[in-house]
UniProtKB/TrEMBL annotation:
SMART domains: PKS_KR. Transmembrane segments: none annotated. PROSITE patterns: ADH_SHORT. It comes from the Bacteria. It comes from Rhizobium leguminosarum. This is Ketoreductase domain-containing protein.
Length: 269
């Protein structure tokens, strides 16, 4: 299926590694011009160079999304590279400190909300005028299954990710008449570099070689982390493909939704 993304311009925040990198590379494979964002200049430029080496089109911008002035600068940099951004994927964020209700601190909640929710608001607010003027745009906010299935640990993170789901639903209603869609994607357990390293450390403690095949690691360790009905973790390619469809012209009637990529973990599936 041709997603008709050739020549569209996408800014993917937090795309110097992990899920963001996977999404950016997936969009590039569909012909999208991708703006890679990160806080580490070298890592951010490495991802952009890798995309270009594979025949894609990419640029790099650097900045901390918790600072208004840096967001203003990086958005200006992005739009200086190429015409106004059509697509925004708000992926930057993260869980931060591992705290539970016995150790949680107010400053952790504030920092987590700033890093996840307000970061997305800052970038979105600066790109919406251009999308409205063009009468076309796509916004995808990356939440987490934790926003729907919070555990007793990291309550601040779960609350921030739940806020992103509500925020996206509100945005979708506000911009629907302008030809802009806004959707949330909530990943479950995804095979990123960090997850791979964490699983292999646990496997080593259970007598499995750290360099064992991933399938062996996955089958042994996954049940200790999560009960996934499909019996495996998701891949970066699967997230990238889902987002590529959501931001494409073919998904123009899908807005305000929260797409779970969780292998059936959500109750009721």
């Amino acid at each position: 299926m041709d997603l008709k993304l050739e020549g569209k311009v996408a800014l993917v925040t937090g795309s110097s590694k992990g899920i963001g990198e996977g999404v950016a590379k997936g969009l590039a494979r569909e012909g999208t011009i991708v703006i890679i964002h990160g806080r580490n200049k070298a890592k951010t430029e490495d991802v952009a160079h890798d995309i270009v080496a594979q025949g894609g089109h990419a640029y790099a911008v650097v900045g901390d999304l918790t600072h208004d002035d840096e967001v203003q600068r990086l958005v200006a940099d992005a739009q200086a590279f190429v015409r106004p951004v059509d697509i925004l994927v708000n992926n930057a964020g993260g869980s931060g400190e591992t705290e539970d209700w016995a150790t949680t601190r107010l400053e952790t909640w504030a920092a987590g909300y700033d890093r996840n929710v307000l970061a997305a608001v800052r970038v979105t607010a600066r790109l919406l005028p251009g999308m409205r003027a063009a009468k076309w745009g796509r916004v995808v906010n990356i939440s987490s299954l934790a926003g729907l299935m919070p555990s007793s640990k990291r309550p601040d993170y779960a609350a921030a990710k739940a806020a992103m789901i509500a925020m996206t639903a509100s945005l979708a209603k506000a911009v629907a008449a302008d030809g802009i869609t806004a959707n949330t994607v909530s990943p479950g357990t995804i095979h990123s570099v960090s997850l791979d390293e964490a699983f292999r450390k646990v496997a080593l403690n259970h007598g499995i070689a750290v360099d064992a095949p991933w399938t062996e690691i996955e089958q042994t360790v996954l049940p200790m982390f999560a009960q996934v009905p499909v019996g495996r973790v998701g891949t970066l390619e699967e997230i990238a493909d889902a987002i590529a469809f959501l931001v494409s012209p073919r998904a123009s009637y899908i807005t305000g939704t929260n797409l779970r990529l969780d292998g059936g973990m959500w109750p009721g599936c």
